[in-house]
Amino acid sequence: MLTPSSPPVGHASIHELENSAPPSFTLHISDETADWHQIGRLGLHKRLDDSGLVFDPVLNHPHDAVPAPSWLRELRERAYSGSRQGRDAPPPVA
């Protein structure tokens, strides 16, 4: 889970976010009891060309990592499936 260092900006265009996005995020990970533990910080420095950049944590995660809780994992699986369909990505390899 990423928590912004400043209040969320809500819905905004990419151009608006470029000027108002939080400068950093705190990274938390959950254990099997669903307790969250801070493990790092993510800092934003500059916007990069994102053509071809794909982030899909449902398909790309460590094999021993199981996102918790289960209801959130199932919601993310559906959301990322819809995202793949929306960008005409090839189906996942089983």
TrEMBL record:
Source superkingdom: Bacteria
Region Disordered, annotated ranges: 1-26
The protein's name in its UniProt record: Uncharacterized protein
